[in-house]
Specification:
The structure holds 4 protein chains of 4 kinds. By secondary structure, chain A is an all-alpha fold. Chain A is 73% helix and 2% strand. Chain A contains 13 helices and 2 strands, in the order H-H-H-H-H-H-E-E-H-H-H-H-H-H-H. The radius of gyration of chain A is 19 Å and the shape is globular. Chain A starts with a helix and ends in an 8-residue tail after the last helix. Chain B has one domain (26-329): ABC transporter involved in vitamin B12 uptake, BtuC (Orthogonal Bundle). Chain B has helices spanning 11-22, 26-42, 49-74, 82-99, 104-131, 136-154, 164-171, 179-195, 198-208, 210-215, 220-246, 257-267, 279-298, 303-329; strands at 160-161, 173-174, 177-178, 248-249. In chain B, the strands form 2 sheets. Chain B has a two-stranded antiparallel ribbon. Chain B has a two-stranded antiparallel ribbon with strand order 2-3. Classes of the chains: A mainly alpha, B mainly alpha, C alpha/beta, D alpha/beta. Chains in contact: A-B, A-C, A-D, B-C, B-D. The structure holds adenosine-5'-triphosphate (ATP) (2 copies) and magnesium ion (2 copies). One adenosine-5'-triphosphate sits between chains A (199-200, 203, 208-211) and C (307-308, 326). Chain A: Its main location: membrane. Chain A: GO terms for molecular function: transmembrane transporter activity. Chain A: The complex is composed of two ATP-binding proteins (LsrA), two transmembrane proteins (LsrC and LsrD) and a solute-binding protein (LsrB).
Chain lengths: 318, 330, 499, 317
Amino acid sequence: MTAPLDLARQPFLVASALIVALLAVGEAISPGFAAPQQILRLLIVAALLGIVAAGQNLVILGGREGIDLSVGGVVSLSAIVAGNLMNGADAGIPLAVVACLATGALFGIANGLGVTLLRIPPLVMTLGMLGVLQGLLVVVRQGIPSGRAAPALSEFVTRSLLLGVPGIIWLWLLIGIVMVLLLTRTVFGHRIYAIGSNERAAYMTGVPVKRVRIALFTLSGMFSAIAGVCLLGYSGSSFANVGELYILPSIIAVVLGGTPLSGGKGGYPGTMAGALLLVILQSILTTVNIAESGRQMVFGAALLVLMLFYGRGRAMRA
Amino acid sequence: MMAAVAAAPSRGIDRVRRAFQRFPFLPALIILVALLLLNGLYQPRSVSFIGITGLVKTYLALMLLSVAQTYVVYAGDIDLSAGAIVSLVNVVIVVLMEQWGGGGFAVLGAIGIGLCVGLGCGIVNGIAVAALRLQAIVATFATSIFFAGLALYVLPVAGDPAPAAFWRTYGGKFFGIPFVFYAAVLLALVLYGLARMRLSTQLLAVGDDPQAAFQSGLPVTAIRIKGYALCGLFAGLAALCVTGDTASGDPLVGGKMTLFSIAAVVLGGSALSGGFGAVTGSVLGALIIGLINSLVYFVGTPSEWQNLVQGLAILIALMAGVVVGRKARA
Amino acid sequence: MSKLKLGGVSKTYGATVALRRGDLEVEAGEVHVLIGSNGSGKSTLCKIVAGSVRPDSGEVLLDEKPVDISGPGAARALGIGIFYQELSLAAHRTVEENICLPDLPRKAGFFVDREALSRKAARYIAMFEGVAGEGFAAEATMENLRPDQRQLVEIMKALASEAPILILDEPTSALDRSQVDRFFEILRRLKGEGRAIIFISHRMDEIFAIGDRVTVIRDGLTVGTSRIPDTNPAAVIRLMVGEQEALVAPAPAAAGAGVGAPVLSVRELAGPGFSQVAFEVGRGEILGFGGLHGQGQSAVLRALFGALPRISGDIALGGERFAPRAPRDAIRRGVAYVSGDRRRDGVIQGRPIIENLMPVHFLRGRQLIARPADLQAKAKPAVEALHTKLARLGDPIGALSGGNQQKIVIARWLIDRPDVLLLDDPTKGIDLSAKADLFALIRKLAAEGLGIVLYSSEDAELLANADRILVFNGGRVTRELTGPERTRYNLYQAAYEAA
Amino acid sequence: DTFKIGLSNGWVGSEWRTQMIEEAQAAAAAWKAKGQNVEVVVQSANVDVPGQIAQVRNFINEGVNAIIINPNSPTAFDPVFAQAKEAGILVIATDAEVSSPDAIYVGIDQKAWAEASAKWLAETLGGKGNVVAIDGVAGHPANEMRVAGYREIFSQYPGIKILNEVNANWDQAQGQQAMQNLLATYPDINGVWVQDGMAAGAWKSIMDAGKTGTIAATGEIRKDFIDLWNKEKLNSGASVNPPGVMASALNIAVLMLMGKELKQPATAGQYKNALYLPIPFIDSKNLAQVTSALEGKPGYYSYTSQLSIEDAEALFK
Ligand SMILES: Nc1ncnc2c1ncn2[C@@H]1O[C@H](COP(=O)(O)OP(=O)(O)OP(=O)(O)O)[C@@H](O)[C@H]1O
Ligand SMILES: Nc1ncnc2c1ncn2[C@@H]1O[C@H](COP(=O)(O)OP(=O)(O)OP(=O)(O)O)[C@@H](O)[C@H]1O
Ligand SMILES: [Mg+2]
Ligand SMILES: [Mg+2]
């Protein structure tokens, strides 16, 4: 109907086709790879990445070279904060979730303010912020009681909640629906695309450019915080630097999902497929018994090939 | 007719503005001088001859890698694989020098091959980004994984020693002056020459507006590939310095340098969006990172706070550089 | 013998046919005018010749020999130089570097020969000596230049190719009269040297002043070529619009008739590039801003819209104080602003037409939710009022021609009716029929009680449509022309006399 | 007078490292009671190899008496350690061995560390079964020594088959994901050899798959894991790489600065400069004792041991 969906649909189909193909490859290499239980486990891992990528996707859609490298730091910090606040007790979950969302929002706002008010390029601002967060992790870990996940949280992430599907996958699905509605059916969504496509024109038509952009970075921080809490549930206890792994993969998931880094077009369904694609690829490589050097070379080359499917830019001479 | 009236009082401001436009690295220079003074204040020996020699020895590699990064940033591109190229070249030359016996010719031969490997990696990146039109950030991240895997294949575990002839040269002195200073002077000359190359202007023009450059008749794809090739070559040179300073092969050695090289480029006043900047600034930016790290220690920051203070200081320097540079130019 | 000949070149972008069948024959020593309404395919044709667009079919002959133009570089090598409508300049490079960019003089193979570069650029800079304006210098960077100065650099860059064939795609759209005059002198000299020149403009007077022959393109088809002495504007327009009746300019407005209470009044307004500006606009009135290019007219309009920082003075809207800090403030109070620079200020590229129409409504209607059906219903009337040609509201805006894009940009202000409409050279690069539509609509809006301020760089347009004209010079209003004073003579006199 | 000792740590990505520094600082403070003032200065940050070389250069500039370093590379410090020695500075590496002839290594033998747990696993499996290994960062020397260690042990048991070895970069979550993928691919795993914090992750996947009773896997030494071990009655065994190694190295450094001489010069290991410390082992036999030693400590706290000043003195003439 409206264009955001139209634009999102195509890459989504491409990525979905690739997912099926990769699952077939995985099943051929090691029987049992595409069994329902294993796919659910892959979905859990993909959900963690996909939630981080939701924020990344928003920031990228907003244009002006939008990118958020600080997601890794926020994920780590939030996992640690959540672990300390819940300290293995279910009663601590609400407080932990609220505190983490606030923390994520705080750093997101800081990023947003730097990018809009001081007009620091997002890559620079969030790279610097990542350094700060990594430093902060070291400080925060000093003299803390514990970093254990509450049992209910672990259950939510790893055990079946409904229809045999774990809660985190439902959460991811919910986030997916909210993201699609947000981007296509709200004024805020239209404004995101507008500032991502032509910030000046958006400004001249009354879009509160700065506020929208700050909101995008804030949401990115909050999504990373949610991912951090879930990651705590996934691994049972918090530990340092868990989030670093999510920085570049979250960007790749967005790109594989058909949102170009230049912003202004694309959507979240593709990103979800991109995240799953990435996780499946990594899993296949884990199960193949070759040396790590070989795994890395295959992974790098495979990423390049995957990007050829839709990550390509416009030709100079059309 | 209008503007002529207001010309007189603004001439001084105009001159400042022009200076910042011509020398985008001025904010970096100011920060660098301030940091040198502070380092000297807290630890006089750190700015002694020996201290500065050590600084240059350690950070020459990052300076070169930042220069490498600058050439792709000129064109509005970026190279996240620069650090992986450093690792790859490092292990290639160390393994070759060992296999060929570690003599003078072995060292020179290995250096030659190493630089070719760097160049080759750069060209691969250039083809992926410019010819295949993949987005630079993600494509070079993918190639970085590939190069890192290759490095691991060449040398599966860190620790192969480089021949003494090699690192003793790098760490040694000639006529009482440390080798690295000769290298730094040579680097300055090379950069001066490169700044006058047609390629530099063309890269900057491409960075300003690739479509416009293309329509002007510039071979945009070839220019961007050349930019990446230059980047690979300088990453190779950076690897030589890493090898000289660490005297060994390590397939992981360059990994963390990539982000620092980008930070150095920004600290040096170049615009990541392309079209504007100077390699001189990136060299200063690399030194700023080094000096911030040592200053944080010299002022007596408790160990658990060091990372945070370093992170904050670099963030503030980045923001200050961007803001001051823009204010001064506007 | 023709210097350049195009035989049936065509180009489609997805569903959009940009050029159906372009035929053109240009001889050495002539200025060959290309004319056609917006989106008729002129620029596409030019870009095909210049190698920056790949044609789908057709052939290009140089000196009656077929050539393969594989890219802009190849075109240059074949002796084709071009001025791009959208310019092709590097913002952070200097004037002289930009002039020489396609072919940097070299030293020792790899290095730039700085002296040769300066010498070469100086030749072309000298051609516009005296008309280039304040701040124009060989060492100035593009980002510090005004739009007209940038256009001059693009002209110099095209001239520096010294190509036997020169393509000039709307090179005068931002230039003022003195600059155009100088440029035409140069063109006449080049013509004398035997160059073949393709010249595009929407300004009829320019076409008849400089052209030798004129070729008309309609909907991507070449529909005819005539010698300029054998034709007249009316005939050309008839060719452009086809079977439809040629559109006549609307009758001059009834000056002052039916002007209501002041809706916008301005006192002592000062800001970057203007000062001591004062005026009132009544309901139903179209107030014109005239004068030479860049005398502060646009800046005043932007200031009224809240898009310029650091202004002083008093503005009142419908009698109430008004101090906009951002366009958002102005929009909320019912001020609308249409910029002629649609690529920069107007169009949200790459997004659907509907999304381009709605942002103002979102703000004025205090909306949070965007329901597609609701949006369609609101957008339709606004689009239809302007006779916009489009397939579906969900199509990307890039599928429309420039003129139709501009209509969308205007239509977005009509969904919620504003009180004040600020038009900042709104017809730049718009074809004649679209202009006629637009001014009919503007008059209608005025009649409905809007106060309208119109700045136009085309004097005829201003004289025909404004009830009253304020002539700007050096950032101030130097003369007000009302009623029968609104003559071309008075306008020029006020514009050219020293401020 | 006071000995000034610089502690250099090039990675702060785990609590183990923090604890290592804290124990070393505590050890320095303990010398005061003995009448010897020891001042420690610390540089501890995430740096790459060149960055850590810069840390050492800072210490040299500052004129410390000794440097104790947990190095990011085995060989990269040769030149800068030579420079330190020229300046009369004692250099001791800990946790990871260095090749420099100008330094000594005080710490555990990483290979023996891996051998101990591999041996436990092989014995627990009765000398036969399918084993997978989850390793740290490929190319990292400590990892490679450990890999060599377990491979050597497993090769001595003809019944043990290594199905696959994967790298999870010493990251708990990656260890968990790797284990999950391995479980899906190989339904018949009997044993898992996994290092450090990744063990907690691997065990989580094993528990999620409901295979706690059928799989034996190596463990780790943080209190959280020890608690889990007790609670779930895991079939596990863990070699201890105590964070106290730096404190041990510091005690040795102080004694050397006092001019004392080692009874047995440090000549062990591949670089002939090592002084190996004993490697404690945790299995079901001493689990209770370890648990009580960790009583009241935070979850990330690692089971530790170190050479006391007296232990260290005993090594000197
Ligand atoms: N005078 C102007 N003309 C054109 N574009 C502008 C102008 N001023 C700002 N912009 C564009 O709009 C962006 C945001 O500007 P602005 O400061 O007004 O934000 P805002 O949306 O009003 O934010 P806030 O909600 O904080 O007021 C700028 O980065 C710039 O690209
Ligand atoms: N890159 C493109 N992608 C899609 N459509 C395009 C593109 N370039 C041009 N078009 C379309 O092709 C048609 C012809 O465009 P062109 O720019 O040649 O018109 P023109 O005659 O130069 O118009 P104007 O007078 O407005 O400059 C228009 O409908 C335009 O929207
Ligand atoms: Mg055109
Ligand atoms: Mg504002």
